[in-house]
């Protein structure tokens, strides 16, 4: 079975619910302000995997949930994620996402930020309608932590003396937290036993870390067409991601100084030299190994759930997370 076949099989597990989520997304994007709808549809229609909504649906199924509130919950998660993308692209001055011009490149920074705010507020309106206090509390806390993670990352730009532990804290906040919120809130919605709630929290956290570490890797090993963004974007922005941090920690003096200078200065003038240094130092292999460790922890957490097609899909998703190319 190819990777694409495996991915299709995972999505097929929740096919009807996934279609319902897509319909809910389009319905909830409605606004009397034309530009809000235009930008909202632009970024939502760009596609993407809808991975976080998928996690909501699979997690609810794995807990035996029989209601229908997982549909608006998955939509809430997608809106929170999309809002962060709109804001991130403004902060990072990005011009390309998913192979298309970013919203800020097309409409400007102010409309992108404000439509991001609209998606956040619409998500919180929907949370209130779901009416489960534990779900609202978890999502409110997660949104706060994600914002803190983005600020932490901003503070680390052009700073070469960031440790691996510091970096893991950043990606746990800015990326893994929404993965964890997706699985955690689904378990809360299902009123699952405490051990299942904890298992799904752990699963989401470790899957999110694995996912971000692979993203770090792809910034040096992927290609622009497949990824839908430019190779070397992190380096251009002066972000000290794990491949660079590990090169500084384990590379030769020349490699270390090259990477430190590249982080401080940003830009792509030394991209080829930095890529060579990252490969030669073993930092890419190290990053891939760390991603596999997190994916294995996710598999272990999901394996404690009751046997079902949903559990198997969660396990398969964690395994696939470290072999993706985009």
UniProtKB/TrEMBL annotation:
InterPro entries attached to this UniProt entry: Isoprenoid_synthase_dom_sf, Polyprenyl_synt, Polyprenyl_synt_CS
Q: Which UniProt keywords apply?
A: Magnesium, Metal-binding, Transferase
User: What PROSITE patterns does the database record attribute to this sequence?
Assistant: POLYPRENYL_SYNTHASE_1, POLYPRENYL_SYNTHASE_2
Q: Which GO terms describe its molecular function?
A: all-trans-octaprenyl-diphosphate synthase activity
Q: What is its EC number?
A: 2.5.1.90
Needed cofactors: Mg(2+)
State whether keyword Translocase applies: no
Q: What class of enzyme is it?
A: transferase
- Tell me which family the UniProt entry assigns to this protein: Belongs to the FPP/GGPP synthase family.
Q: Which PANTHER family match?
A: ALL TRANS-POLYPRENYL-DIPHOSPHATE SYNTHASE PDSS1, GERANYLGERANYL PYROPHOSPHATE SYNTHASE
What is the name of the protein in this document?
Answer: Octaprenyl diphosphate synthase
Organismal lineage: Bacteria, Pseudomonadati, Pseudomonadota, Gammaproteobacteria, Oceanospirillales
Gene for this protein?
A: ispB
